[in-house]
Write a structure and sequence with these properties.
By secondary structure, the protein is of the alpha/beta class. It has two domains: about 160 residues, DNAb Helicase, Chain A (Orthogonal Bundle); about 240 residues, Rossmann fold. Helix content is about 45%, strand content about 10%. It contains 14 helices and eleven strands. Helix 1 packs across helix 5. The N terminus is likely disordered.
Length: about 425
């Protein structure tokens, strides 16, 4: 992705702005970038001034950075620019993402410059081809080594075993951690879209989606490339009202929905749109899909699926829980494979993969079928769900106390 994600905004300015907002941003950026990764000498010196100011234990703010940078010869960056860039960045949470964007652009720039030199050398008949080839290999090796993070190294097993025990970074306790990916499939009409909506709306209201316990309200974002705003209004009003009644807050302000037609998430324009929505709303859960409408190709093989997976992973790398709807193949020889339709790469990619299959003729009961083994065991996923209760789906994970609480709510039956 050579172009900035924010249309019309240079990722270099976003990195600089974010670094002046929080010291953590400086650490994230300096792990990825060196001053010479920036396009101009002025921007390189501004970044160097930020890092030097931070290392000196001084407060990193526009006046201090600008003073140090101007002493180093910077002429085309004003203190007002630094204030403007802080406003554009908005927060420091996206620093690592934009730093990688700057690194990618710098790598492409170095490769382009090297290619020009190679072309000139090859056109000179007096220069032996062996010499040109050796120079090409050495230059590409240098670019390759410079394109990786300086902090990359392999830990010994002993170092790993001696690390302190890690605490789960829960978004929804006992269910989903930051960085988890869930893909949901199912028979047509079984309510997989409804279940994903229920997950997002309950979490936004402070209701655990599968146990109905009270939790901290979770900010969510839905990018729906199949359904309209009208359909959301008609199909979620009761669900939202119930969640607001049972939860600690209304989900109205904690969940944002963007509806549009098919997109090509492999393209910078469409992927950038989603990243901008993430920048604006800072969600902890992102629901997107269905996946077959995120690309013009059918994702029949790994070559078609790989760029879509890479694009989705760039969103997951923002510290999100990623929930994706997918479609499964049609019935064949009386059997239904609930794994996602298309490339086998889609099966091995997520942490969790479930399909909803009818357990009775009326589709009032659904079996939650795992089409891949859980990457993390012990999560509170239901094995069976019922179309009865306060929400469209009630899992066998709902305990007696929650059942009694909902029984006391007007109009609710279990």
């Amino acid at each position: 992705m050579g172009e900035p994600v924010n249309a019309g905004v240079d990722p270099e300015t976003l990195v600089i702005g974010a670094c002046m907002l929080a010291s953590d941003a400086i650490r994230f950026a300096s792990e990825v970038l060196a001053p010479d990764d920036f396009r101009s000498m002025d921007m390189a010196e501004v970044f160097r001034a930020i890092v030097q100011t931070h290392k000196a234990g001084e407060f990193v703010e526009p006046f201090t950075v600008w003073t140090r940078a101007t002493k180093a010869g910077v002429k085309n960056v004003q203190i007002t620019d630094l204030h403007d860039w802080m406003g554009l960045a908005g927060s420091a949470e996206s620093t690592a993402f934009y730093a990688r964007e700057v690194k990618e652009i710098a790598t492409r720039r170095r490769m382009s410059m090297a290619a020009s030199r190679f072309t000139q050398s090859l056109s000179n008949a007096e220069v032996p081809t062996a010499q040109t080839m050796a120079e090409m290999l050495e230059a590409l090796k240098g670019i390759r080594d410079n394109s990786t993070d300086a902090t990359i190294r392999a830990l010994s097993l002993g170092e790993i075993l001696d690390l302190p025990d890690t605490v789960e970074d829960w978004v929804i306790p006992g269910l989903l951690e930051r960085g988890d990916r869930l893909v949901v499939t199912g028979y047509e009409g079984m309510g997989k879209t409804t279940w994903i909506r229920q997950l997002a709306i309950c979490a936004a209201a402070g209701v655990h989606p599968t146990t109905l316990d009270h939790i901290r309200p979770v900010k969510g974002l839905v990018v729906d490339v199949e359904n309209s705003v009208k359909q959301w209004q008609r199909q979620t009003s009761r669900m939202a009202a119930t969640a607001a009644q049972h939860g600690s807050v209304s989900p109205r302000e904690n969940l944002h929905i963007h509806c549009q037609g098919r997109m090509d998430i492999r393209k910078d324009k469409d992927l950038g749109l989603v990243h901008r929505l993430v920048d604006e709303h800072q969600p902890e859960i992102l629901c997107i899909g269905p996946i077959y409408k995120l690309s013009p190709t059918a994702l029949k093989n790994d070559e078609e699926a790989a760029p879509v997976i890479a694009a989705l992973d760039s969103l997951r790398d923002r510290g999100l829980v990623l929930i994706i709807e997918a479609h499964s193949p049609k019935m064949s020889n009386g059997q239904r494979d609930l794994a996602p339709r298309g490339s086998a790469a889609l099966m091995g990619w997520p942490e969790f993969g479930f399909g909803l299959a009818p357990a009775d003729e009326d589709k009032a009961v659904a079996d939650v079928v795992r089409w891949r083994g859980d990457r993390e065991t012990g999560r509170a996923w239901p094995k069976t769900m019922y179309r009865a209760g306060a929400f469209p789906w009630t899992g066998d994970t709902v305990g007696p106390q929650q059942r009694r609480e909902f029984l006391g709510m007007s109009g609710v039956s279990f």
